[in-house]
Specification:
Rossmann fold; alpha/beta; 5 strands; 2 domains; Zinc Finger, Delta Prime, domain 3; about 375 residues; five-stranded parallel sheet
Length: about 375
């Protein structure tokens, strides 16, 4: 990846290229940014830049043999460590490296849930085991094959267990020659203090709404209105923005979800059993991901409704249509209503994940909500 491909972040790019040009690049950098920021993309950009055979002032050339291999993530001096779920196929990154390359080449802005879902472990926790630390030592004990640097990118090092974190610390204290460690974190406060003290922190800010919208227009070919709406909802998280744009393409985007949800709540309020049964049949025919997305959206909107009731409307990032719905529906429900409804939605999502019949789940929810909405509960 070239720095040119990363929208915004001009100051950080200049800092990194200047450090390379002046030979002041630290042996270990910590790219510290929120989820969905450019921290991983900047690490990939730096990895390509330091080994580029024809560096430009502000970027790699993108054409030399080294750049070509870096762009495909197959350069022999580029190594990765990342969290994996224990699925019985091995506990280290090497096992999943081909899948990881495909995952990153599709998009450079990723989140841990994205990765765990891709590797088939979305119902498990990801972690970096002690075995990974031994692999790091083994890989970096060899000399660089082609480039000026051996590069080790560690994605989400905060998910290392104590043993692997201590092993990494030893490597950082006595790094092999011409080796560059690029740690990419979303929660630096969970790292060992001793690791923090041995790395140079590169603060990576969240994207602005304008930067997210620009990326969506240029890379996803979205129209101006859709790009700005998704950017507003993503709140600086480009990984989330890309997920939302992907949902729009599949017909399960925010606008479609809101239309379905609003109709569902109206039918529950009116206690229109005929329409509720028909909607349950419709829900049963949706793909599993669309069903899960509708429940996730419902829970999120009830959270927004709660915030509105508590006088925290400035925290909401909703399009006008959804904000209008929240304002009106907040007049009907109390905090106690919302608490019961969210608990029921979470339980329904749990049973849906475990392959319960979708029609029965939604019909049960609909009947429960129809009674609950008409029941007077304390505020």
């Amino acid at each position: 990846m070239q720095f040119f491909d990363i929208v915004g972040q001009t100051d950080t790019k200049e800092f990194l290229t200047r450090a390379v040009q002046t030979n002041h690049l630290a042996h270990a950098l910590l790219f510290d940014g929120p989820a969905g920021s450019a921290n991983l993309a900047l690490a990939l950009g730096l990895a390509q830049y330091v080994n580029c055979e024809a560096k430009q002032v502000n970027d790699s050339c993108g054409r030399c043999a080294s750049c070509q291999k870096m762009q495909k993530l197959v350069h022999p001096d580029l190594h990765f460590v990342f969290p994996v779920a224990n699925l019985g196929k091995g506990k280290n990154s090497e096992t999943y490296l081909p899948l990881w390359r495909t995952f990153l080449l599709e998009r450079s802005y990723r989140s841990l849930p994205n990765w765990l879902e891709t590797m088939g472990g979305d119902n498990k926790q990801g972690n970096i085991s002690a075995e990974e630390a031994r692999n790091i030592l083994q890989k970096l004990s060899l000399k660089a094959y082609e480039g000026a640097y051996k590069i080790m990118i560690i994605w989400l090092p905060e998910l290392m267990n104590v043993t692997s974190a201590n092993a990494l610390l030893k490597v950082l204290e006595e790094p092999p020659a011409q080796t560059l460690f690029l740690l990419v974190t979303n929660q630096s406060d969970k790292l060992l203090i001793t690791i923090l003290s041995r790395t140079q922190r590169v603060a990576v800010r969240a994207f602005t709404d304008e930067e997210v919208a620009t990326h969506l227009r240029q890379q996803q070919n979205l129209d101006e209105t859709t790009a700005r709406r998704i950017a507003y909802l993503a709140d600086g998280n480009l990984a989330e923005a890309l997920r939302l744009s992907s949902q729009d393409e599949k017909g399960v985007g925010m606008s479609q979800q809101h239309a379905w949800f609003a109709e569902w709540m109206r039918n529950c309020y009116k206690q229109d059993l005929t329409k509720l049964v028909k909607q349950a049949d419709q829900f049963d025919g949706f793909p599993k991901e669309k069903q899960k997305g509708l429940f996730e959206y419902s829970i999120r909107l009830y959270r927004d409704l709660f915030l509105w009731q508590q006088g925290a409307g400035e925290l909401l990032r909703l399009p006008d249509e959804e904000l209008s719905f929240v304002k009106n529906f907040a007049k009907v429900l109390t905090t106690a209503h919302i608490e019961h409804i969210v608990a029921d939605l979470n339980e329904a999502a749990y049973h849906l994940e475990r392959n319960a019949r979708a029609k029965m789940i939604l019909l049960d929810l609909s009947l429960t909500f129809s009674r609950l909405i008409k029941t007077k509960l304390p505020a």
